[in-house]
Write a structure and sequence with these properties.
Length: about 90
């Protein structure tokens, strides 16, 4: 039972951290976004992260999509309530 709670707490902490920090440093370029072997004359963007040096963490996209959907639903509900009030 203790293991269950520990797992649940870990999951919640991970979800919150995903929401706050959806990106992590790209390992292959060490967060620089530069291709290894780049020189002064020729800079190559890292292929893995597209030159940003950051990559999305697993699950971060899903969390943010869920949050956006919830926010949109709440806004819609508020608009609906506002319209009803206007009709009365
Ligand atoms: Zn990279």
């Amino acid at each position: 039972m203790t293991l269950f709670w520990l797992g649940l707490i870990t999951l919640v902490c991970y979800t919150v951290s995903l929401y706050l920090w959806p990106f992590k440093r790209h390992g292959r370029c060490k967060g620089t976004g530069r291709n290894r072997g780049s020189t002064k004359r020729r800079f190559g963007d890292c292929a893995g992260c597209g030159g940003t040096g950051r990559v999305p963490r697993i699950g971060a996209k899903f969390i943010h999509q869920s949050m956006l959907r919830i926010a949109a639903d709440r806004r819609k509900a508020r608009e609906r309530r506002g319209k009803q009030k206007g009709q009365l």
